Amino acid sequence: MSCLISEFERCWYLSPPWGKQMPSVVVDLWERVYITATGTFSYCCGVVWQDDQLVYAVASNRNIAYLGKHEIIGTGQVQPTKLEKPAFAVGDRVLLRFSSHATKQRLVLGVVLVNNSWFYVVEMVSPALSPALGSPIRFPLVSEKDLVRVNT
What's the CATH code of the domain at 131? Predict the structure, then answer.
């Protein structure tokens, strides 16, 4: 029985939540974007799969706004930065270095800049019908050193 559960978990963590094809990213990291609601310009500093869509983290007035693709318009202008590009992209397969789960392989579900460092969103806990109090965070941010690329 535990083999079946492990296999189910492995399939769950590697099944893209977006279906068979990855949706296109409408703006690149550090691309200047126009925020339609406020009529202002800002920069994209992350992208995360959330609520069945890609949501873009946009730096605006010392805050981060999370906006859908219909709330921003990319300009094609990428801000030069001294930061290295993220090591992983949304949809990449990775192995967790620290997981105690039966399967350590996951999909990257987001890339976010925090204090000038790239962090990645991965699903750590299978969904439950009723989450228990004190249960671990389902989609934590993990650093690059916690992940290993899986060659497919």
Answer: 2.30.30.140
64, burial (CB in 10 Å: exposed 0-12, middle 13-18, buried 19+): middle
In the predicted model, is pLDDT for residue 38 greater than 90? yes
Question: Residue range 68-83: average pLDDT?
Answer: 93
**Position 4 in a domain:** no
pTM, two decimals, is 0.78
The count of domains in the chain is 1
**C-alpha distance from residue 52 to each of 22, 96, 106, 128 (Å):** 12, 24, 18, 17
Give the up-direction half-sphere exposure of residue 56: CA atoms within 13 A in the CB hemisphere.
27
Q: Does some domain include residue 11?
A: no
Q: What is the pLDDT of residues 87-106, one digit of tens each?
A: 999 888 888 887 565 467 88
Range of the domain at 104: 86-149
